[in-house]
Amino acid sequence: MDEENKKQLTENQYYIKTLAEILVLTATENVAQRSHRETSDSEKKGIFLSMLDLLSNHNPVIKKRLEQQAKNAKYTSKTIQNEILECLAGMVKKEIIQEVKKSKQFSVIVDETRDVQKKEQISFVLRYYYSGVVHESFLEFEVAEQMDAAALSDKIINFLEKHGLEYKDNLVGQGYDGAAVMRGAHAGVQAKIKEVAKHAFYVHCSAHCLNLVIVDAVKSVADAGNFFSLLERMYTFISGSYVHNRWLEVQREMFDGAPRELQQLSDTRWACRHIACRNVMDRLPAIVQVLEEIASEKHPQRAVEARGILAQIDLNFAGCLVLFRKVLSDSKYLSDLLQSKTVDYSKVVELVESLKETLIQYRSHDSFEEMWSETLELCTRSNIETTQHKPKRPRVTSKVLQGSVVASTLGQHEVPDNKHTFCVSVYYPVLDNMIGEIGRRFSNTNCNIMQGVQALNPSSQTFLREETVLLLAEAYDSNTEDLKHELHQIRRVLLRKKGQKESPTTLMEMTQFLDPYQDVFHELYRLCKIAVVLPVSSASCERSFSTLRLIKTYLRSAMTEKRLSSLAVLSIESKRAKSLDLDEFVKCFAEQHGNRRIQLL
Q1: What's the confidence (pLDDT) of residue 391?
Q2: CA-to-CA distance for 33 and 22, rounded, in angstroms?
Q3: Quick one: which of 12, 328, 444, 568 has the most CB atoms within 10 Å?
Q4: How far apart are CA 259 and CA 245, in angstroms?
């Protein structure tokens, strides 16, 4: 090849790499690449072409390409953009799949959401252990034409087969939400997947379980539901432009530091409502002051609404505020941990038990007395009356119902107005329902597999107990005879390491500790890897939905599904995307792009 051809080839490769770098940058930053009109004389031709023009002002090679190259050889069309994005995303996915295959054992996490076009988008995430770290890697979005169990399970199996994964033996876990179509024990997705992958243990998303614990506890106590409805109404009223300005002024007059905003209540993450409770509790004197001022103004609609809210801020409201601030604050730590990609199920079991024990401790006379003292102090600071001046009319059951067995409520709810009634009708019922729901929702932690997982956790009382570890081993067809010998030997190894820095204290550390000994402790190492890759929650899928909403907006709703999936991979797996080898990209693109107008190899 002569010098001129070499120079031309180098410039061609440099140019295509530049296009790829621009697309990687815009994709990882969730920036729209294209515009409505992309002609050369358009004032707004889109970020992609605008960045290319900017680079051409400082780079003679790019400038020469844009000015002298034929229109069909500039490689700036939407078709070429899609091919470059698909190639880049393919390289990221190839890297992930290679890691999964080396790891062998993996879990699949699936969830769905509706995009701006009302299409049902399925998010696929793989959880696996590689190079001492647990990864939860996003691979793609796919549109679901049907939402029945058969169609969804076929989608998952086709996804695994498409990427060449040995799911029949190596798929050890499947994580979904609690929808009936997903969790059905006989005809649900998890059951159909288990028919072809017998080791795929189903885990109901723990974050959803925790959310349902709080939701059910609130729904079962009428005063708790009324309390949160009042918080939402309070937020809406004070967030109005006129009232909000007064709200900021009152805070500056009454408190030091920056004014606080009331928080809108989340319907999907109830544990996060503790921030709303905390802000209302800290600023309750200012809230009462603002409502009293608005209630005395001449604007009739605002005044009536302010008086209505003010009338409900009473002793019962203050008690609920203190109670839920405390309970939701304790739940928030577990909720945050469940969002982590690296948390394992042994840690979840520990923290769920810890939360349950905390709630049981709250259900005592001393804890209630402490809570009630805090309630009275809050009422004093906020000028809320703590005594009932006017006795309420006693409720009388209808004579028609006398002598009958009534199987439903009569709408005769007794509003707590003193210490005893609040304790009996709100405090204990909320705690009892939460404790009961935790036991029910997280009951799968008592199954054989979860007991086996706990037996691999160095901080567990059953650590390396043979009969408990064998429960997990039998579920995953391990060689139990070899495992028994390995358990005997690993106890000796750990005994020598006891007290040293490298002595493991968690399930993850135990797995990392076995990395150098994986050939010696083959069965035990395999079980540890299975234990850490069992899915804990579908939070990674939920995070991918956030990216979906940033990419597929109302103005970008016409993009193809392939482009959407490619952009999502580059955005979510941005660390991998930014470290791609662009020389490898040139080879990949040259092989995939058949009708080349410029020579790349």
Answers
A1: 54
A2: 9
A3: 568
A4: 11
Distance CA 526, CA 523 (A): 5
At residue 109, φ and ψ (nearest 5 deg) are: -120, 130
3-state secondary structure 387-450: CCCCCCCCCCCCHHHCCCCCCCCCCCCCCCCCHHHHHHHHHHHHHHHHHHHHHHHCHHHHCHHH
Partners of 138 in the beta sheet? 125
pTM (predicted TM-score): 0.84
What's the pLDDT at 389?
46
Instruction: Write the single-letter amino acid at 272.
Output: C
List per-block mean pLDDT (blocks of 10 residues) for the chain, which spans 601 residues.
78 88 93 72 77 87 79 79 93 96 95 92 95 94 91 94 94 89 85 92 86 85 91 92 91 90 79 84 93 90 93 93 92 84 82 91 94 94 76 62 64 62 92 90 73 90 91 91 94 85 88 93 95 90 92 87 94 95 90 71 71
Residue ranges of the chain assigned to CATH 3.30.420: 101-204+536-564
Neighbour tally for 398: CB within 10 Å? 10
Starting at the edge strand found earlier in the chain, the sheet holding 171-176 runs 133-143, 120-130, 106-114, 171-176, 201-204
The angle formed by the CA atoms of residues 224, 230 and 232, to the nearest 5 degrees, is 110
pLDDT at 47: 86
> Token pair of 591, please?
């092989």
Q: In sequence order, what are the beta bridge partners of 373? A: none
| The two structure tokens encoding residue 523 | 């069965």
> Which tokens in the block code for residue 244?
């909000």
Own/partner pairs, 153-160, CB within 8 angstroms, 24+ separation: 153/189, 153/192, 153/193, 155/122, 156/108, 156/110, 156/124, 156/189, 156/193, 157/193, 157/196, 159/108, 159/124, 160/108
Give the whole-angstrom CA distance, residue 372 versus residue 123.
Answer: 46
The full DSSP string for 235-298 is HHHHTSHHHHHHHHHHHHHH-SSSPPPPPPPPSS-GGGHHHHHHHHHHTHHHHHHHHHHHHTSS
Angle between helices 365-381 and 345-362 (to 10 degrees): 80
User: What is the per-residue pLDDT across 481-514, written as a single tens digit (0 to 9) for each?
Assistant: 999 999 999 999 998 888 777 789 899 999 999 9
Structure tokens at 161: 């087969």
3-state secondary structure of 130: strand
CATH classification code of 101-204+536-564: 3.30.420
Cα–Cα distances in angstroms (integers) from residue 235 to residues 177, 325, 349, in the given order: 30, 16, 36
Residue with token string 């009936």: 180
Q: Which two tokens stand for residue 236?
A: 């809406």
What are the start-end ranges of the H helices in 444-597?
Answer: 448-454, 466-475, 480-497, 507-514, 522-533, 539-551, 561-572, 574-578, 582-592
Residue type, 187: A
